[in-house]
Write a structure and sequence with these properties.
8 helices, alpha+beta, Ribosomal Protein L22, Chain A, four-stranded mixed beta sheet, single chain, three-stranded antiparallel beta sheet
């Protein structure tokens, strides 16, 4: 299992690094990446692709250049396992604020474990007052969730609680692959532990769907640093499951053992540098 965080803010690969990194991504994924207007979004999403491939290679032992990623009917990436093994790998990535994160798990096919992840920077940078922002977001949370969010003594506490709840919802909808298109008031979280930490994920937050406790779901919550919270959703946890904190990984770690899967495309990389 993996819980990885890479700090993308301020990271900009050199042209030579960019050439190598882009050669480690499948052509169809390169086309998707090229559609980003802003370079920061491109870089964060590129790191996400590297994380996926690195995790699969580490988890399965399959050679890096033999890994093929596909996308399901909801556009969620998955590993096309052609090895015939009973190993099932599920993973999800998220990027927001200063970080790109990956949560991954390995299980047997019969367990059918599903995973989702979301990271949020706990800040509000909108131009409206916090009360007006909360009013505009009313439909996205249940009455119980709003009670929990507004119970904070300061604006900072309430923003932190808001981002924590949003992170939980995103991790759930990303897991099931529907995006923020469902009735979010019917997806209600009830935190038990008040404070999050970097060292020990909490796993006692409960999910209620249409008012009913969804006991088959488990959620891990923790901090990447003092400004970023992260939530991992798990459906059908594997037998060997144990919650673990996020590990901050370096560019060198992500590139350890990589092998190009396509030829270096200098024109592509020069076009990216112009963003």
């Amino acid at each position: 299992n993996a819980r990885w965080a890479f700090k993308v803010s301020g990271w900009r690969p050199s042209l030579e690094e960019l050439k190598l990194v882009c050669s480690c991504v499948q052509e169809e994924e390169k086309r998707r990446l090229a559609k980003f207007v802003f370079r920061d979004d491109f870089d964060a999403s590129l790191v996400g692709r590297l994380m996926m491939r690195k995790f699969i290679a580490d988890a399965t032992g399959v050679e890096y250049d033999a890994i093929v990623l596909g996308r399901d009917e909801r556009e969620k990436p998955y590993w096309r396992n052609s090895t015939g093994s009973d190993c099932r790998v599920d993973f999800n990535v998220s990027h927001q604020g200063d970080y790109c994160v990956l949560a991954g798990c390995v299980s047997r096919k019969c367990e059918d474990t599903r995973i989702g992840v979301d990271v949020m920077k706990m800040e509000y940078t909108g131009g409206k007052s916090l009360s007006e922002f909360f009013r505009l977001m009313t439909r996205n949370f249940s009455a119980d969730e709003w009670k929990s969010i507004r119970s904070g003594k300061s604006d900072e506490d309430q923003i932190g609680a808001f981002m924590r709840h949003w992170c939980l919802k995103e991790s759930y909808v990303k897991n099931i692959g529907v995006g923020i298109t469902v009735d979010l008031q019917k997806i209600s979280f009830s935190p038990v532990s008040e404070r999050l930490s970097e060292k020990s994920p909490i796993v006692d937050t409960k999910l209620f769907l249409d008012g009913k406790y969804a006991e088959e779901w488990k959620f891990e919550e923790s901090l990447i640093d003092s400004q970023h919270c992260v939530a991992v959703s798990l459906l059908n946890t594997p037998e060997n499951y144990s919650a673990q904190p996020f590990e901050k990984v370096s560019f060198q770690q992500l590139m350890d053992g990589v092998k190009p899967v396509v030829e270096i495309d200098e024109i592509y990389c020069h076009n990216i540098e112009r963003k």
